[in-house]
Amino acid sequence: MSESAVALEAYATIGILGGGQLGRMLALAAARLGFKCHIFSPNPDSPAFDVAHRVTCADYSDTQALDRFAADVDVVTYEFENVPAETATFLAARVPVVPDPKILATTQDRLAEKKFVSALGIGVAPFADVAEPAGLAAAIERIGRPAVLKTRRFGYDGKGQAAIKAGSDLLAAWREVGAQACILEAFVPFEREVSVIAARGHDGAVECFDVTENEHRDHILKVSRVPAALSAEAANEARRIAETIARKFGYVGVLAVELFVLRDGGLLVNEIAPRVHNSGHWTLDGASVSQFEQHIRAVAGWPLQKPVRYGRVEMTNLIGHEVEDYRRYLAMPGAAVHLYGKAAVRPGRKMGHVTRVFTD
Amino acid sequence: MSESAVALEAYATIGILGGGQLGRMLALAAARLGFKCHIFSPNPDSPAFDVAHRVTCADYSDTQALDRFAADVDVVTYEFENVPAETATFLAARVPVVPDPKILATTQDRLAEKKFVSALGIGVAPFADVAEPAGLAAAIERIGRPAVLKTRRFGYDGKGQAAIKAGSDLLAAWREVGAQACILEAFVPFEREVSVIAARGHDGAVECFDVTENEHRDHILKVSRVPAALSAEAANEARRIAETIARKFGYVGVLAVELFVLRDGGLLVNEIAPRVHNSGHWTLDGASVSQFEQHIRAVAGWPLQKPVRYGRVEMTNLIGHEVEDYRRYLAMPGAAVHLYGKAAVRPGRKMGHVTRVFTD
After folding, report:
1. Which of chain B's residues have a Cβ under 8 Å away from the Cβ of A7?
2. Which fold has domain A126-186?
3. pLDDT in tens, A218-236
């Protein structure tokens, strides 16, 4: 879809690949703007199915189902970056797919992503390509210990990662991440983790939300706080980095850039997520426009909004059995409770979140 | 459903009678809390159908469809008060219906409603029962002119009303409202119109939103502003009136009380709407909990939230062709745009609304 794409009508149909809570919240945001949504997901228990105009439950390789899906929608987007490239390419031949599937090739591969960011003159942790176990020792030689071995593809929430410390067995680490193509990253002694949610429209306009500070537990996001405890200078630099990445990609939609803040205030890009992001959930309650709505606006060819934040915001994920405590949050004054409608509680599963906005 | 009703699980199914924008926004709020919705509406173009887990398009008198609907849902509620009493009664024999359908008998009839409010010692405009045209002259004798003749049933947005001024022809007025049972109300020289959105939970707890000031155009709500320009005393009194009405009804859910503010600060109840209300749409963006979510919480047997308002709020309805101007609002910083997904634009039809929150 080019930048001159015609804007959709307010009752057009948006196709969404993926039916998890991100797809669900995208569909809810689309509905607020008058759009219908068609959700495509291989999982029959998809939370997004409950709020969609139409659903397709089929495998991402089912070309007949994809054909019917493409014929029913005016534009396609996705809730997560691990949609098979063939699926996105198949659809893009039939209907506009936003953001451009070509970007997935970069963001699905940690090595390509690091090279892309690095080439923009933006800081990243020192890294080395580890194509096979034999290359690991040489990489350690260059990067030093401690370091983190990460699979190039399909990692999330700490999956596909192994720490390499002073006495670590290299071959064991290689096996731990699944004996596949990896990169080795220097361990960065960061002071805090932050993220920037940026949106870029068809017209090239970029709007960033305020920098969010993120606290992880067992590699899963637990709490996000806005604004992050950063100098105005560092916060501006973080936003500038996200904006540069969005522009250089020719990106349309919402992307998240995760950054490490070093002791001296320096910033290193940790990861890019070419989609709405858990650390942006606070925007549903704490701002005049949410990350989900910005993404839908971009995908529809509508103008972005300049977000106005309503106060200091804190978002807490409800993970696994924590969700059973929801009544406590329901009764908490000013707490906005979001539950994803997942009947099965599993450890580590994101079941909902709670946002509190402090206007004092 | 008694006050000891067991709270629903977060993935239970809520049945909603009516598929307009109110049903749509109720369904969106229910989804945020993890519920599934089943919408029942006779209108195939129902905006709420687009965001529902399941839909039934059937007449309110179709007992087979109602039977299947009742079997599929855990609780039933409605988006508007003109659901046929027989429909509500039929369903209530099969599944909990909230709020209690008995309340509809009062609020569907302007005469019964006025008597109910009056009996609580709450002020209303002087009124007289006009069962037939012959009684109109006597009623005018008692109430005086100017006055307003209103049908007892099925009036909304100024429909079913005729002004009776100095020279008005009484029989013409009677015919204008459809020659049916009416009440005559004294014309009240009010200074402003306000409303209170109140929620009452199964546990008897009541939470009122801040008093809203409403501006009508051609008898249709055009702008709501919060807070209303009232003394703290009058605002408290307005909330107390709404709370008293909710308690005396034994009401569960959200109701709206429209009031006239007189020059001396006195308050008269104009109308009760036993449902979410257009003048409460600002709560979607301007408060930590919306009227739609409060209603769903009450219906589900969940605790209400004590709402926190994020600032001064202004909500503007997009009526008829005004919606075509939506791109102007989309680009307005801080403006939250809601479009109801109605493809057909008709004069006087509510197509969407825009909310602005001012945190200064």
Report:
1. 327
2. Dna Ligase; domain 1 (3.30.1490)
3. 989 999 999 999 999 999 9
